[in-house]
Amino acid sequence: MNDFLNALTPDNLGYLMQGLWITVAVSVLSIVVSFILGSVIGIVMFEKIPYFSSLVGTLNNIVRNLPLLLIIFFTYFALPQIGIRLPVFWSTVVAMSFFEAAMLSEIIRGGLDSIDKGQFEGARSTGMSNRQTMMYIILPQAYKKMIPPLISQLISLVKDTSLASGIVLADLTFRGQVVYAQNSHYIVPILVFMTFCYFIANYLLSLLAKRLDRRLA
Amino acid sequence: MEKNKKRLFGITASILLVLILIVAGFWAANRAHENRMHQDTLARVEKTKTINWGVKTDTKLFGLVNTKTGQSEGFDVDLAKALTKQIGKQLNMKLTATFTPVNASSKVQLLKNTNIDGVAAVMTITKERAKIVDFTDPYFPAGNSLLVKKDSGIQSIKDLNDPSKTILIALGTTAADTVKKEAPKAKVLALQDYASAMQALKAGQGQAIVTDNAILYGLVTENPDYHVVGGIMGYAPYGIAFDHNQPGMVKESNEALAALKKNGTYNALIRKWFGQVQGLDVSQLEVTQ
Amino acid sequence: MSMIEFKDVEKYYGDFHALKDINLKIDAGETVVLIGPSGSGKSTLIRTVNGLEEIQEGQLIVDGFDLHDPKTDMNKIRKNVGMVFQHFNLYNNKTVIENIMLAPRLVLKRDEAENKRIAMELLERVGLADKANNMPSALSGGQKQRVAIARSLAMKPKCLLFDEPTSALDPEMIGDVLKVMREIAEDSDMTMLVVTHEMGFAKAVADRVIFMADGQILEDSSTEQFFKDPSNERAKKFLSQVANH
Amino acid sequence: MTIFNHYSSLFYSGFGYTLLASLIALVASLVLGTLFALLQLSKKRLWSGLGNAYVQFFRNVPLLIITLFFYLAVAKVIKMTGFVAGTVALSLYTSAFIAESVRAGILSIDKGQMEGALANGLSYGQAMRVIVLPQAFKVAIPSLGNQFINLVKNSSILAFVGGLDLMYQGNLVAASSFDTFTSYIIVGIFYLVLTLPLSYGMQYLEERLQGNR
User: Fold this and answer.
1) D29-80 pLDDT per residue, tens
2) Is residue B196 within 8 angstroms of chain D, CB to CB?
3) pTM for the full predicted model
4) Which residue among A202, B226, C241, D79 is least crowded, i.e. fewest CB within 10 A of its CB?
5) How many Å apart are CA A149 and CA A212, to the nearest integer?
6) What span, in angstroms and rounded, lies between the C-alpha atoms of A144 and A213?
7) Is residue A1 domain-resident?
8) How many separate domains does chain B show?
């Protein structure tokens, strides 16, 4: 108990909370970028354009099947070798957006696939173009269905941000490691505290997902 | 009709994408080649009027983050600040020191990638490393020692030269070479950082940590059941590192370091950071004129 | 000796009062038909008998065991009380003969050769010996229900419960199933409790008819009495409606 | 390619450890996941609460934190290497996701299957084991497959605790060769050797199962 009090001084606590803020910022930025990118890829895969869709699908599959940790390290350590030099924060956002876009595109394609084909036929029969059908009929329905899986993807993002501590992103996990470098007695208190922070953040998100799920069902 | 159009679009887009990928590949390979070519650190420093130093965040006495300020503090950090000021004086301009946190495995990568200008992060000068980076003159007289449990009976690294023994080191340090030379039969386990290595030692995953004496003294301050043995294996002092082939930067830094040693700043910093460490004779570290 | 006895039984689903003050006694060997409008609690009542639904108050004694007593081992009772469902509930992952042989093998530890012999006998009895190695998904509804009956019989139960066994079937399938049920009622001394809308079957086979509505038993009389002149008004109305169809 | 030739033994040994950790965690998380799925579905409040708490906990906490916890805290009490700590953490973490898949599978099986088996005289355990679970696993195959792919990818967490896996060796090679670009691409190819066949196999299975329906 004493270790807890010693480890969680106001200074340490403030330092850790700033880390949580960075974790949240990276997560939110990444989900926005990956959502846009993932939508484009998802629609391309859904449209079944000859050759192009399967090519994009294959590239997408390659990214999806790599560990995120590898992509993070690659972006930060390897890309500068070809002159793409990003600060650690943006490097993390880029790596996570890239990876999550590949994950999200599958969700988006699945959401589009789940829309009844009758919706297309109905819209096309009233004279709407393919693009209009997509924009006004299909996508709104599909996005509504996708909100819960999107939130669970956001939860993954919040958790996965911790991997960027490996490239010294000053997120919650990294800052926790810094604090217990002061004294090894702080290891357990700090790990417990970090667990608590992540759990609360993600649990709230998962409750939100459940609620939206119920409301949309 | 529409089907044919879609098909045509698909083929065109696919060819385009493949072309883009190929071009990007060649461009990347080309850029990688170009990027290996020389970039003058001193010129960059003069242009930006800052020196961006890579420092540790988790190493007591050398670079440990103060959670109040969020900045690393320690001998390395203070010395880097003093050097920046001194180099500025030499160049007749006001230089600012900025700091980027690095860990053992990222410091050289970041230097090579020019994310940072110099590394002041408990980095030992070795021949191997000197092929890849440029070192200044030594700024701290370090060498590898052993950290073992007080009741373990281990006195020197020779006691560990046995396949049943495991020696713990931190990733990207020189300890690997020392162990290879002094105890080739022992198993080696490399950990991400010193805190993990200490934990591994406590958990009995290995019998000893081999790393720089200065760091081991930092570990001893909070772990009184452990002590440092085995003397100093090889004089392996720390140096400030710059990217390869930077004679200008190295020359300025060496001049600055000599000046700091001469005007007493260096000794003041030594006393500030190592005066309190038990079992360490500070006068050994101080420079005498 | 009574096989099934309800004493002041009450059952709730949350706030909904599903069974109200049920008192009912069924003797061993009796065939009892339970009728009533949908939502009257017939299915709930029959499902309480082998513990698929718990009761909240009162006593329910089946084969000498008190089901409301938490110490009672439900598995022991279910060994002796079989059930046939509206939707058959055949094991989708097992062949027809495996459906029949599984419980005797696992629960009764019946000898494998004996088990197979009995299973084939039962399949012949329900007229499906040629389907022994099919998967349930390859059978028609009526065939599935006959397999389900054979599956229940394989355990040699003392008592067999039927929960609307023909209401999910196409009309032309119903006859085969009812025929099998009638044969069981006639040539064994098994206790049968049947929830059904088949008045013809009730008239021909039942010893007693019980009429339920709104979770209550409103009439409990001999078959002859019930169909000639039920004492309860709602039962009368129900009978006339069913007869009109 | 010279990098690969020069360090090939490191890559191969890393690949071996990644494979080993994945296989151990696969078996352990499948067993644990099924167990906790059953707990979640228990009628007893205490058991289902326990099951839910376990699943919610591990789903909402980063794998890295769990790994560090085992490596830095639990290892103080029970001695274990980074490889063991990482594999244990990986198993527990994955088991929460598998529990969700299995639970969804069980719930998708018609209630009548359980009732039929109970009325037929089988005990709850027998009915679950012989009738419900085999059907539930079949339904859960696509989502289980995804969890296994995630498991292989997540095994890279071992690199943080000296777990000797592919990622760990990749970092070592990148740090000593300074051709980070090539080193990480080689590591990526090794991971794809494991995950891509799994991924395409799952797609194939999923399409076939959908075709059957």
Assistant:
1) 999 999 999 999 998 899 999 999 999 999 999 999 999 999 888 877 777 7
2) yes
3) 0.84
4) C241
5) 11
6) 9
7) no
8) 2
